[in-house]
Design a protein that fits this description.
The chain is α/β, with parallel strands linked by helices. 41% of the residues lie in helices and 17% in strands. The protein contains eleven helices and 13 strands. The chain has a six-stranded mixed β-sheet with strand order 4-3-5-12-6-13. The chain has a five-stranded mixed β-sheet with strand order 9-8-10-7-11, sandwiched between helices. The protein is rod-shaped, with a radius of gyration of 33 Å. The model is unreliable at 165-169, 171-176, 283-287 and 310-327 (pLDDT under 50).
């Protein structure tokens, strides 16, 4: 039984007090309306209308159930209106890294609303953002790419505990901000009988990308660092806790370090920075490229700068980037 169609027949008949006028109102044949009323009466277990008189009247059961029937029809109409409105508004899921700046994401959401696009932000690891674009579950996503090929770049650096001793942090900390080199992580010679073990450098899940990990491993080898000096962390929060406790250094972006009170120095090797492009689900209906207004807003949420803003572009990589690209 099509409950909504049968309730329509019931309400129209009660309003018109006539089977023929109710059928005309609904645009259906009177025998069809009569069958619907009869089916509904069998369903409810009682008569809804008294047909013994010249004019159709509503029975006590019919009067009792009528407001509930109207409520069901009103809710169904509201549901159709909401669905129609949602269909007129373009909706897009956007895959972004964890720990984006909420204010920047809010600007992107507002900008989409101004253009009739509803953006839903989803924090996802790098691989899930790529797979989301492939299967169409994401409309747009910030995708990790090599920094020399990306439209945007996030400068990375090394963070340490704010109160660490001079020997437990990079020389750049505590003085004027200058670029840090991986060579600075080599163990220093000390006259003490048992020099402290060098602190491990933790990496966050956003950097657990094969291409990124391979570059970091090669760069560490060129700098003369022992294997295993860089270690993947299970989460950014635990990695930061280890860093603030003075038990590790952290490879991260400046906003993340500063937000939590850690010391930070930029990494000189730009080939180890994060590169991003804003990708789109090319096979998704209604998605024709990335809007010009969206890409810079998403990039700002991760603290990225355009490759033309001090970052080496595809035609002007620095020497470390060229070496890393060649392997």
């Amino acid at each position: 039984m099509d409950l909504l169609a049968h309730l329509d027949a019931y309400v129209a008949t009660a309003d018109e007090a006539s089977f023929s006028r109710a059928a005309d109102r609904l645009g259906i044949a009177q025998p069809l309306l009569s069958r619907r009323i009869k089916t509904l009466e069998e369903h409810f277990g009682g008569l809804l209308f008294d047909r013994s008189r010249r004019q159709t009247t509503t029975t006590e059961l019919g009067v009792l159930l009528l407001p509930y029937a109207r409520d069901v029809l009103d809710r169904a109409q509201r549901l159709r209106q909401v669905a129609a409105a949602a269909g007129r508004t373009r909706m897009r899921a956007v895959g972004v890294p964890a720990h984006c700046a909420p204010a920047a994401l809010a600007r992107a959401i507002r900008a989409g609303a101004e253009r009739g696009i509803t953006l839903g932000m989803r924090e996802l690891p790098p691989r899930e953002r790529v797979s989301g674009l492939a299967d169409g579950s994401l409309g747009y996503a910030l995708v990790r790419v090599p920094p020399e090929r990306g439209a945007f770049r996030v400068p990375l650096g090394l963070a340490s505990a704010p109160g660490a001793a001079d020997g437990e942090r990079l020389p750049a900390y505590g003085g004027p901000l200058r670029a840090a080199h991986l060579e600075d992580l080599r163990p220093r010679r000390r006259r003490t009988p048992e020099p402290p073990a060098p602190l491990p450098v933790l990496t966050v899940p956003e950097d657990h990308v094969p291409a990124c990990e391979d570059r970091l491993e090669r760069a560490a080898a060129r700098a003369g660092l022992p294997p295993g000096r860089f270690r993947p962390a299970g989460s950014a929060a635990t990695a930061l806790a280890e860093t603030l406790a003075g038990r590790a250094l952290l490879l991260c972006a400046e906003p993340f370090a500063r937000q939590h009170g850690a010391r930070w120095a930029p990494l000189a090797d730009r080939s180890l920075h994060r590169g991003y492009d804003v990708g789109t689900a090319a096979d998704r209906a209604g998605t024709a490229g990335v809007p010009d207004w969206l890409a810079p807003l998403l990039a700002s949420a991760v603290g990225a700068v355009a490759t033309g803003s001090g970052a080496p572009g595809p035609g002007a990589e620095d020497a470390p980037a060229r070496l890393a690209a060649r392997g």
